[in-house]
Design goal:
alpha+beta
Amino acid sequence: HFFLGTLYGTIYMNKEEIAEFQRQMSGELQGIGAEVRLTDDGAVGVSSVIPGSPAESAGIKDGDRIIAIINGNERLLSSSFPTLNEAVKKIRGKPNTPVTLEILRGEKDEPKTITVVRAAIKLDMVKTEILTAPNDPNVKYAYVKLVKFGDALRAKMVEAVTDILGKYKDIKGIIFSVRGNPGGNLREVYE
């Protein structure tokens, strides 16, 4: 058993939840490829869709609210789950199996039904790109996005920065971004 401290308080985790947390921190999951959270009305809110994931291919968008999960003949309201983890278990599943999601989209709560075929998903903990200054295309910056504070983040970050600085000798600076990062392993943040 484990207690996890968050900005919102302390969360008790049983053995199964600890194993799930550790799986998430490894960067290898099976599911649709979307980060989710609980909304104020008890729906499962999509906080971010992983680029190239089955969720993106099926048309799931950031901000969608999942109100029901359909697996075969079983239709479950997302508000009926006692925890977010219980809802996530129903969305995740074996690769190449479908899950149908009833969602509400936008300010008008436009209803949609979307079927997503689950897959094995590898999360990149670090993403990089080169940005140019708007007033001078010769001035380049390395943009390093820390997607999640998962296992071996420090090593992956050092490798990515070393790689990008090796390819581009004229970098004027490095921008580190944690925008949209849901958090993760405190040890990795500290290092």
